[in-house]
Write a structure and sequence with these properties.
101 residues; mainly beta; globular
């Protein structure tokens, strides 16, 4: 939350979970940050994005791939240092439930 507070808002946090509301406007880039815990991500609104590691190397580029449907739940393990750039025409909105410990 320290590295990217403009894009992540904590909805709930306790010793078991942290629920994050993430919103990234078109053309915006989330600064370098990490996610320490695995998480379930609920897609509230989709837009193409590019995720880069701390050296700027592309890890994920969703352009040219099928869009993820609104309402889809996705799983992710912990994520090391990365940035995320919204390269699509819409806002990217995801609610994540990070599972601690």
């Amino acid at each position: 939350m320290v590295a990217a507070p403009r894009h992540h808002r904590v909805l709930l946090e306790n010793e078991h979970v942290r629920v994050l509301d993430t919103r990234i406007a078109p053309g915006d880039t989330v600064p370098l940050h990490t996610h320490c815990w695995p998480a379930v991500h609920q897609v509230m609104n989709w837009s193409d994005f590019v995720r880069r590691d701390e050296h700027g190397a592309v890890q994920v580029d969703t352009r040219g791939k099928p869009a993820v449907a609104v309402g889809t739940a996705l799983w992710s393990g912990p994520l090391g240092p990365h940035t995320l750039e919204n390269v699509g025409p819409a806002g990217l909105h995801v609610v994540s439930v990070e599972l601690k410990g």
